[in-house]
Amino acid sequence: MGFSLRGRASAADAVPRPVEATEVTDNEATRVGVYLFALALFAVGAGIVTAAWAAAAGSVDVLTAVVAVAVGLLAAATVRVAPQWERVAILRLGRFSRIAGPGPYVVVPFVDYAAMHIDHRIMNSSFSAEAALTADLVPVDVDAILFWMVWDAKKACLEVENYPKAVLRSAQTAMRDAIGQVNLADLSLRRRQIDRELQEVMGAKCEEWGVTVMSVEIRDVKVPPELEDALSKEAQAERERNARTILAEVEKDISEMFVEAAEVYERKPVAMKLRAMNLAYEGAREGKGILLAPSGLADGFDLGKILED
After folding, report:
1. Which SS3 state, helix, strand or coil, does residue 81 take?
2. For all residues of the chain together, what is the average pLDDT?
3. CA 189 to CA 144: how far, in whole Å?
4. CB 32 within 8 A of CB 80
5. Cβ contact 214:202 at 8 Å
6. First to last CA, the chain
7. pLDDT value at position 15?
8. What is the Cα 144 distance to its own chain's centre?
9. Fewer CB atoms inside 10 A, N or C side of the chain?
10. In which element (H, E) is residue 147 found?
């Protein structure tokens, strides 16, 4: 009798693990209350008809059940409820009547109908521009996220067929136009500027649809794999060139300092002897008391000669 690896893994998986910071749990608002309200109206309408029929006729038959169901459906279709974040476009005989909600509202059955339920909260939509050409004709894939909201439900319902799809299509077009105006090298450096330009362009276009663009944020820019290697080599070559330039400038500064020191030593020989003494001291300290130096270096220790000079 033995234990399999599958059984051990299952036992380990049963232990609760902490949720990472990057994980996002679903916390969306629901419309369950709206459905429960409609169900309650249906039950109340059907119950009233059934109770009244039973009190009048003394019994309940199939006709009573049919009438009760019809009245219940009529009550649920007449009085409705819209959540706080929702607006409802009501059409009467095909013409725009009003914007209802939030809260309860009444429609006339077979005359009024809800054409569209419009969410007034801030929406976030991801979109991408694939194979968009930069100004130097390099194809890139750009992923971005768009934050927007509807401020005029009437315009969103009447001015455009499908306003969420229209907003995304407009965002993709504006993104391609913005990328086509910059080079690949400037794309990563001007991301914030491109975000602001996209927000302005999108805001002016979507204003006619009753939509406000809050912000546009570029998340990722991908270049073709064959181009990544070339860009990496170019960046390495650029860094190597900069390093060599800096090294050459340092060597130039050091050589100039050596020339100035030589001029000082030539004008004042005592400075050369003091430097020799300093070198001897440093050599002795680093060599743990053992000094190995040419015999001419001992002249630097002749203080009398130094003072005569």
Report:
1. strand
2. 79
3. 16
4. no
5. no
6. 101
7. 42
8. 7
9. N
10. strand 139-150
Q: How confident is the model at residue 4 (pLDDT cuts 50, 70, 90)?
A: very low
| 275 CB-near residues (< 8 Å, 6+ apart) | 265
Contacting residues for 301 by C-beta, under 8 A, at least 6 apart: 277, 280
Parallel/antiparallel/unpaired status of strands 112-119 and 211-222: unpaired
The full length of the chain comes to 309
- The answer to whether 50 and 68 are in contact (CB under 8 A) is yes
Of 49, 99, 101, the C-alpha closest to 74 is: 49
Give the tens place of pLDDT for each residue, 7-59: 333 344 444 444 444 455 556 778 888 889 999 999 998 889 888 888 887 77
Partners of 104 in beta bridges: 81
Beta bridge partners of 126: 145
Class of domain 123-223 as given by CATH: alpha beta
Gap between the Cα atoms of 86 and 119, Å rounded = 5
Residue-level pLDDT at 138 = 81
The 8-class DSSP code of residue 119 comes to E
Strands 139-150 and 211-222: antiparallel
pTM value? 0.62
Confidence of residue 222 (pLDDT cuts 50, 70, 90): confident
Residue 90 CB burial class (10 angstroms; 0-12, 13-18, ≥19): buried
Domain boundaries, the chain: 28-118, 123-223, 268-309
With H, G, I as helix, E, B as strand and everything else as coil, classify residue 121.
Answer: coil
Alpha helices in the chain (DSSP H): 5-13, 32-57, 62-78, 153-158, 163-179, 184-187, 191-206, 225-267, 269-286, 303-308
Per-residue pLDDT, 240:
78
As given in the structure block, the two tokens for residue 101 are 């909600």
Q: Are the C-beta atoms of residues 298 and 277 closer than 8 Å to each other? A: no
* CA–CA dist 140, 218 (Å, integer): 13
